[in-house]
């Protein structure tokens, strides 16, 4: 069911609150890179992807792989909001606790509706290519989306896969790079510069688009462009803000891998009213 | 059941060749069989499959990590992917991906390493895989197979395809002595007793099965009755066959073309320790990298021929009280 921009924005706000609450309750986790990806995941799960949360293993469904698996909180919140049976919304605050389905990084053993277990960076695009090639062999029109982190782009396997994706013309796969400019140790440009990102993907034979990753219509337009592009896969370089939506978390490397304190949770929830 | 009384060394196909041929048969029977290779298809023998089924063969280039990931993705899409390269490359360079993308989510991926052990010969240690049994067995949920000859490889590759879950198969470059008739039955996790014996048991796999049989014949002429067991499945081990061998013979030699650290030997020793402790000796590669040379020269120099198996048996028998 297509949603209005207002409805999608309302979901984004709820998802942001859930990310803050669940990482706050867990006292650990990765809020910054979860908050930067909210609009992209909400657009995918509530507007663009062909999925049926009531029938999560529908063979013709579109697939999403969170290659930057540490941003699990945003994926859990979005899947819970979307109503998958194995991502109960009432249990989000059990994140990272013993016995919780909400493991520190996405784990298909606990949530079968996930498409992949991730957490070791650099691997998601290879998995997506396998899924895309399999779908093509079966004549299915489904598409596979994979979100990479910008720091993750420092992994060599990403570029092995980029080469293979163009070579095998896997145009039913699209990459979305969450380009928030910050990784664990600091700013990406200071740890290992990856720019120019879009040019790199173009040089590897991909169609590349650059967008504002918090602009819902722009995300939707980019996804349409990707789908319309045949003979080569598309990489959407989404410029985002780490910690987006909470003033003291935005562009703050501290919140890559640190949960907000109880006081910070309260402040953040005030801002997200 | 004993299948040999007088072993005559007759060379059959290399196990990699048997793998390549069997893959084509499987491809004809099941359209879901797909294959990935990392620029070694002419050596791993997946080239036969590539020629007959070009649409179901994916050339990944020299990028083993990516190949394992793509294979795992194909498995998630419902395919039965075989990914293949030299053991040294697919296991070592793909290990992280085998762990996180295949073992951890338990996907239906089949990994075939060729050119295992030091018997690849002239190419030398950078291409020789002497640690992949240890690595493969450390992958949770993997089945690990090490066939002795052509018939064993054909049967085990078929069983791997039928098994639901990740499998690693270890194959070699050189032609190997025929151990089995074409109609020999195999079962994953069920060892085969190829020679009866009561004084000592030799547990071997891969190339060393034929050497163990040869050794058992030399030993018979010395009055030592040596049982030979082909432990083609390294994981899950046939614990009952090991317990029985230890309890009934009271001495065990394990022989493999692999580092003794973390190989079949230590896995068998664990079961012996847990069930029926007895003296053991180990034939394998001892904490060294080999060198270039002809396969037979290397096996001889690094202690992996019948002579070495027989010497280990004499030693372990002398340790029996």
Topology at a glance:
The complex is a heterodimer of chains A (273) and B (321).
Chain A: H1 5-26, H2 32-35, H3 38-48, E1 63-66, H4 72-82, H5 124-137, E2 144-149, H6 156-167, E3 173-179, E4 182-183, E5 186-187, H7 188-191, H8 197-203, E6 207-212, H9 216-228, E7 234-239, H10 262-271
Parallel strand pairs in A: 1-2, 2-3, 3-7, 6-7
Antiparallel strand pairs in A: 4-5
Chain B: E1 11-14, H1 15-29, E2 33-37, H2 41-44, H3 47-52, E3 57-59, H4 64-76, E4 80-86, H5 87-93, H6 95-103, E5 110-114, H7 132-137, E6 143-145, H8 150-162, E7 167-170, E8 175-177, E9 192-195, E10 200-204, H9 208-221, E11 226-230, E12 233-235, H10 239-249, E13 252-259, H11 264-275, E14 280-285, H12 295-301, H13 306-319
Parallel strand pairs in B: 2-3, 2-4, 4-5, 5-7, 6-7, 10-11, 10-13, 13-14
Antiparallel strand pairs in B: 1-8, 6-12, 9-11
Helix pairs in contact in B: 1-8, 4-6, 9-13, 10-11
Give a verbal description of the structure.
The complex is a heterodimer of chains A (273) and B (321). By secondary structure, chain A is of the alpha/beta class. Chain A has a single domain (5-271), classed as Thiamin diphosphate (ThDP)-binding fold, Pyr/PP domains (Rossmann fold), CATH 3.40.50. Chain A has helices at 5-26, 32-35, 38-48, 72-82, 124-137, 156-167, 188-191, 197-203, 216-228, 262-271, and strands spanning 63-66, 144-149, 173-179, 182-183, 186-187, 207-212, 234-239. In chain A, the strands form two sheets. In chain A, strands 1-2-3-7-6 form a five-stranded parallel sheet, sandwiched between helices. Chain A has a two-stranded antiparallel sheet with strand order 4-5. The longest helix of chain A has 22 residues, at 5-26. Chain A starts with a helix and ends with a helix. The mean pLDDT of chain A is 97. By secondary structure, chain B is α/β, with parallel strands linked by helices. Chain B folds into two domains: 12-177, 3-Layer(aba) Sandwich (Rossmann fold), CATH 3.40.50; 192-319, 3-Layer(aba) Sandwich (Rossmann fold). In chain B, strand 6, helix 8 and strand 7 (167-170) form a beta-alpha-beta unit. In chain B, helix 4 (64-76) packs parallel to helix 6 (95-103) and helix 9 (208-221) packs across helix 13 (306-319). The longest helix of chain B is centred in the N-terminal third of the chain and has 15 residues, at 15-29. Chain A binds chain B through residues 59, 107-109, 115-120, 122-123, 125-135, 137-138, 156-157, 160-161, 163-164, 167-168, and chain B through 34, 55-56, 58, 60-61, 63, 65-66, 68-79, 81, 96-97, 100-101, 104-106.
